[in-house]
Amino acid sequence: MHVSAQLSAGPACSPGGWKAKARTLVATRPPCVASPGTCGTPQPSQQRLQPSNAVAGVGVSVPGGNNNSSGSGSGPSSSGRAVSPMPTSRSSASSPSAAKQRPLSQPLQILVRAAAEARVASAAPAELSEVNSRLAATSSWPALQVLALQYQGRLDQQSVVAVLRRAAQLAAGTSSPSQAEQYACARFLESMAMSCANLIPAMAPGTVAAVLSTLGALGVSGMVVMRQVPYMVVALVQALILASLPQLHHYSPPQLAYVLRGCALLSPSGLPEVWLDEWQSVTAGAVLRQMPPDALDAVVASLQTLYQRQNWLPEDGWLGELLQAVEAQLGDYGGSELRHLVVALAGLEVRPHNGWLGSFRAAFDQRVAAAEMAPHEIAGVLYAFTKLEVAFA
């Protein structure tokens, strides 16, 4: 089966080399102010949340005059969005002394208070070998839930990562989770949130990235019901978002992709734009080209979630770099990955240029000829291109 594609006449390519089906929608998108979920024209009385509390629904608005005395005050970015000033020194913000002096963010205060009310007492951490031994014998979600309760308050950073990775392994082996398994997973994650409460201020970048990445993997697997994310899990993710802001430049390319997925999936109120702007800045250029197909797929899917939830898209130039990175690896994409990719692009209303579509068509034809795509995957690709006004002949 051979499929060819032709683009109908459309708007000129953007600086990044892609076309948008509804170009005016992208170009005239109103800036988001005060909270990622609130869009409109900024008014003098509206202030963006500062980085210490810039999570939608959690935090307070601080007058900009207190923090914008330097020359790096807030102003519109090239994409038309207001940009909050970033911390002037990443190294000082991520140092242990700065972590001790920095006041607790409101999401972290919620976690600490909840842990105290649940009488989760901090104790000497259990040996990692002991935790690993228990994890090796844990093969069900109820058993993992019990383990998390038994070690609540006794897990150090390494043990937290080990327990969450075991949860990801269980999720990967569960094709169709039952309601009982989803319930056990929710209670397990609440226990882990309590254990993380006192660890977050001193969490290393690798630990923060691992926790957020694993939470995202659990969300994709279906173990976490997106419409019923436990409140403590949302507070945990929001606290980690704020903790990761000065750490993003320490993450590897795959970590950056999976951290974005975890944050986007488990933040029902959206992400603070100051965090998104920093993430976009850190991932530009060579970082995108170093991401494997699965990581790029996570990025594209996360952008679709953010666009639907808070009307946020990266700048045109960054989107062009993303499409170039994807195009270079289209030959490594499987049938389901190709479908996910083009469906996400249709959801973003981003239509690549003819050269990119030619590369996609070649990869698509190869998968179809090798019978590596199911009928519903082929139908998904055709439907997505119809939405993008790409005519197949």
TrEMBL record:
UniProt name for this protein: Uncharacterized protein
Bias type Polar residues, positions: 38-50
Segments of skewed composition (Low complexity): 51-99
Region (Disordered): 30-104
